[in-house]
User: Fold this.
Amino acid sequence: MTLSGNGYGGRRRRGPPITRRVMVWVIAMGFILGAAYISFRQAASLATTQVAEMRMDQELLEREIEDMALKNAGLQTALEDEQGRAAGLREKYDLAIPDAETEAMLDALRERREAGIAADRLTEVIAGAQNEWTCPTEPETKRFVIQTPVNDGANEQAAFANGTVTVTGTGISVLSDGGLPEAWFNAGEPVTLTFTRIGGESTDVTGILPLHHSLVFGAEIHRFTVIKGDTLSFVAVTGQVCTFP
Assistant:
């Protein structure tokens, strides 16, 4: 009896038909393509959501930028307004608070008012004042010795306008190398000048040279300038009579 089969005595097993294999392959490809499509749709949906969120963020950022620009413009306007108000206040302050020269004039004006000078008279004098003085006489220069604690000798005064005004002065002595006072005055320290009118009325002026002073006699003003002299202990006084005011 003859047996059919392979050499090992077993029956040959046939593989699946080709149609079955194709169907399996098609189904597998369908699962793969379906999974890919689902993944693609999910990715596209996620991307669309992210793009929408990014657009919303961009619009929000643009609105914030616009708001900041508006606020910045408002702050700039407010700053300009404040600068304008500050300039106005500064101008008012400058008008209300006079400088040193104006303050000195106001002090002199108050002093004259307190002395009983009528306001209309002061106004008239100020209105008639000019930069240039009208002086019918030439200036006259004289010198005298500044008195110190160790020097109260001769040449202690100078007289002007035929003795109408007499000028004297006192000061601090210069110290020697040994610390002892010398006869002449220290020009680097304040001196006191005394202007005495005829009749005995006097006015003191204290300060470091040069010093200036004026005396009014009716329609005349006697103007004086005092500087350090060219000789130890001496000062030079220049006086001139001018029309007042």
Confidence is low (pLDDT under 50) at residues 1-5.
